[in-house]
Every structure is written in structure tokens, then in C-alpha cells.
Amino acid sequence: MRHTVFSSLAMRGAHGQQHGDGQQPGGQHAPPEGVQQPEAGEADDGLLSVMDGLPPQFARNPLPGTMRPMPRPAESAPVASQAFDFRKHGHAMVDWIADYLEGIERLPVQPAVAPGWVRAQLPAAPPERGEPWERIAADVDRVIVPAITHWQHPGFFAYFPATASGPSVLGELLSAGLGVQGMLWSTSPACTELETHVMDWLAGMLGLPAHFLSSGTGGGVIQDTASSATLCALVAARERATGFAGTAGGLQGRGPALTCYASTQAHSSIEKAVRIAGLGAANLRLVPVRDDRSMDPAALRAMMDADAAAGRRPCFVVAAVGTTSTHAVDPVPEIADACETHGAWLHVDAAHLGIAALCPEFRGIHAGVGRADSYCVNPHKWMLVNFDCDAFWVRDRAALVQALSVLPEYLRNAATESGKVIDYRDWQVPLGRRFRALKLWFTIRHFGTEGLRAVVRRHVALAARLRDRVAADPALELVDPTPWSLVCFRARAGDAATEAILSRVNASGTAFMSHTKVDGRTVARVSVGAPGVAERHVDALWDLIRGAR
User: Quick one: which H or E segment has residue 223?
Assistant: First the structure.
């Protein structure tokens, strides 16, 4: 069934909708009151001095508020954008997104479509000739919206969230509009230096140790996800353990087998990283957990000792600060002790829960993190920065760069040769990289640290509200309760009863929960983290749960 909750994107573009009192004919906008537009040829002292001395046809063109059109060189060749009214359709798209986010609660959280439905709505072959934008935009309403799981919906309680906010979305839009490829400092200094700066900001906001700052031997970089951060950390660990021989000669038959360790509750991306890095899944040790689902450090040490005695080399350990299933926090100090004994790299995966450390009262989750070789957290999970944005820090950037750097002649440049700049291509697997720092910068500046703390505290309080109700219900029992934003529970009557609750809640269309297995039994997960979630949404979820049991 087609959803027509929002006014059509195509209709917005077709009718040239007005966008505020300041709009002038032709899509131009009057400056805010009190802001004077510069006269033609007038200098703007607020611009970077690097713009001075450029030829006249590249007149300085600051952002809206002091903007003036950049003259087009005479007899310029036609470009694709001349056939597309970006200003009109862009305004329409922003309005559509705003309407979507404001009215998202009126949509079902999950789509009611069968596999293959989307493809059945699309033509088998691409168009030979370009289509009118109005037709393309109409298909957003017709094909895309009916088949979306709405992650920003206040009834989304399933997986750890992928949050977004207006400032972040605009940062993503600006990144796309600038079209920067920031593989080197020289390919866009602002892309690199802003990223370095906001990563230092974020390290301070989270209370991370000083050796993760760019001013020392370490530093931070934005990866796409924690999966990529783990892979990069593992490659660096592998090279450190082999004296950087792996990158040159490979691992086939060279030296002792390298072994890796994570708890039985660790994220699946760790096994994938071990496979990709060439260490082999057989060399990943899954360490037993204690009653609270955190890694058993005594078992870890015994496994590492046994591997070393057998001629293998313990190489890499992942400690979780907030496991996916139940938010368990591994004992990082004790794990660090074992790593130091064997010279193994310690990586801390705090993908979701690490954001809680914005609040001083939750910084206990970072006990021992100062002894880690690397650490990652996802602002796109719980900090209102839209996907994708993983923050990854290392204690010693030289190890990471040496493991991942390849410098062909066509990338050589004076800035790189000087040794005074960071080239983030050497901190990741791909060569190219987007200007992700803009959305992180916009979000931090708009909300401020205290505003982001308020988001975390609100979600924690809402989770506690639900947790108290589950605890008081004789038909339900909490599973491995933690004090943050995740609530895990099951029906005392058994798996069938728990699965019935999940099925009925998710079929309602107003809420979406997920599940996990703990000790072989089905457990319902409620992750509180949608940007607009409020008490009434948690109360409505509780009514659904109570009515389904």
C-alpha cells in the first residue's frame, strides 16, 4: 500500500514552493536583517588569506550570509548542472526531509512489503534518455518510503540506533556539495585538519587519555564503522607482532601462528576482521564470560599462556565496553595486564556504550582504557551524527601508518614529503575518503557537549523507566540488567512466550524490538535511543508488551 503521509517531493519542485520570508525571485535569498551584502569587487576580510591573489574569475565566494555569485568564465562549456535546477529541487528535498522527520511517527516502523517488492516497482532496464526530476522525485513516495524501516522513528527500539539530526544532515549535504576527496592533506587541507581537530575535541569530551590526541604520538581518524576500526587495529597489531614482515612477505608459513582473543559475547565483526587480515578464524579464541557476560580475565590469561607455550604468538585482544547483546563491559584493567605480559595489542570496542562517557557520572566504563593501544566509538549510534561515522584512536600512529601506507609516485607531494601533515589515506583500508568531519563538527557545535549529555541522560532515564516496570511484572524477568540504555528481558514461561511478545509488538507497526540468545534462551532487547523518543513512547511500548504476554 502506498504511503502518502507527506506532500510529494515532485509537487514541491513543480510548484516552486516558497522557502521563507527572505526569498527573492530566481531563488536568491535576502541576507538576514543587519547583514549587508558586499558590493561587487569589495573585499571580504573574513575569508582565508589563501584566497588572496587568485585570478578575478575565481572571486571569493563565502557561505550564505555574505554570499555573492562567482562569475562564470566567458564561453564556458556546458555542464550537467546547467540542465538541473539544483536550487529549486534542493529546497524541495530539504523541505521533504523536514516533513518526513516531523511526521515520521505516523508511519509504521517497519515496512509491510514482501521480498522483491521494490524491484518489481522498477523498470527492468535503465532509461535511454534522462527523465524529468519530478518523475524521479515522485518515486521516492511511490517506491522508497513504503519499503523503509524508519530508524529515526520514536518507536524504533530494536538494534543500537543509527541517529541523525538536522545539523548532521546538513553537514552531509555540504560534504556532498563540496565533493571533496580527502585522501591526502594536499587534496583538501580543511578536510584533514578539521578531522584532526574534532577528533581531539571528541577525545576530550569522552575523557579519553592524552596519548590519543594528535599532539602526541597517537591521534584519531574517522572510519565508516567500528568494523573497519577493528580491522585496521588488527592489521597494525599483526605488523607489530611480525616486525612489519607481514606486509612484505605475507603470512604463509612465516614464523609462529598469531592468535587473537575476544569474549564469546564479542561482535561478529571481529571474526570477519581475523579472516580478512589473513590470520584465520581457527586462530580466534572466544574467551568464556563471567556471570555478568563480561570476559573472564583469568580464562583469557590461561588461553594466552597455553598458546604461547605451544609456540603460537598472542597478538590481538578485543575488550568490549558494552557488548551488543546485553551491554556487558569487559574488565579492561585485568585484560590489559594479560596483554602486557604477552606483548599483545589491546583494542577497546566501545561502539555504542562509549558515548555514555560524555557524562562524567558514566566514565567508569572507561576504567583501564588508558592502557589500550586503540579505541573506537560510533557517534552515529548515540550522538545524533548520521551514519556513517566511527571515531577511532590509536596510541601510536606510526604503527598504523607503517602497516597501511603505500605511496605511489602519483600521490607524492611536497606536503607529504615534509612530514608536517597527516595523510589519512594511511590510516584506513580505502584510498579515498569523504569529508565526514563536517557533520561531526556541525553536530558538536550546534548541541554543545552539555546538549549531547542531555540526550544520553534522557535515554538512560527512559530505559530505567521501562526496566522498573519489567522488574515489577511477575510474568517477566530482566536478563543481565545494566544501568544504561538497553533493557533485556524474557518471559518466565519460556522462549515461546518471549517470541510471542516480540512478534505481537513488531506486528503492531508502532514499535520494533529485536532479540538475542543468552544461555541458549531467547531474550527480548529494547534499545532506547531514537532522537525523538519520549516517555509516552516507552509507556506505549510497555502497554504492547504487557498486552502480548
Answer: strand 219-223
